[in-house]
Write a structure and sequence with these properties.
mainly alpha; Arc Repressor Mutant, subunit A; 6 helices
């Protein structure tokens, strides 16, 4: 099986076995392999998402944006952007696109005069429910070779890795 992005287990990116080294070196190599596999998986998921309408052709996550509003209620565009590693301008573009399709609307924000809230419309709520159903249907077809325990463990590992990366990003921006 070809692995264009991540190295095969026990190999470095150059195709050689790692030199015998410290446990820290082995752990770093394992963490690097995990990060590369997660990135490769992300790009495959994004490509599938673009084919199914979960992600706009230009990369905006329609499903993720609408999911945030469905779970958290009305939010400002900057709040939505802060939840993701993306710019406010990119989220504004997605909000404007969804508003054109009448899936979201901008409403006055009682806490801020200039930063309006974005909320799902009734049409948007129905569209999100449809997308969420399709998402769960697709998810049910993945991981057939894994147990539920394996999937839950992998989810927790990726979540913890994501939190560590977020904390490092916060630390480097101060």
């Amino acid at each position: 099986m070809m692995r264009p992005m991540a190295a095969a287990p026990g190999k470095t990116g150059a195709g050689r076995k790692p030199e015998a080294g410290s446990a820290a070196d082995s752990k770093a190599a394992a963490a690097a392999a995990l990060m590369l596999e997660v990135a490769q998986c992300f790009f495959r998921i994004r490509a599938a998402g673009q084919r199914t309408g979960f992600i706009a052709d230009w990369g905006g996550s329609t499903f993720g944006f609408m999911r945030s509003l469905a779970l958290l209620g009305p939010l400002t565009v900057p709040q939505i952007a802060q939840m993701r590693p993306t710019s406010r301008q990119r989220m504004q573009r997605l909000a404007d696109e969804l508003a054109t399709e009448e899936l979201v609307e901008f409403v006055d924000n009682p806490k801020h005069r200039r930063s309006r809230l974005v909320r799902l419309t009734r049409k948007g709520e129905a569209a999100f429910q449809d997308l969420n159903g399709r998402f769960l249907s697709i998810a049910s077809t993945l991981g057939s070779s894994l147990s539920q325990a394996d999937i839950l463990h992998a989810t927790e590992v990726v979540r913890r890795l994501s939190e560590e990366v977020r904390e490092q990003l916060r630390g480097s921006s101060t």
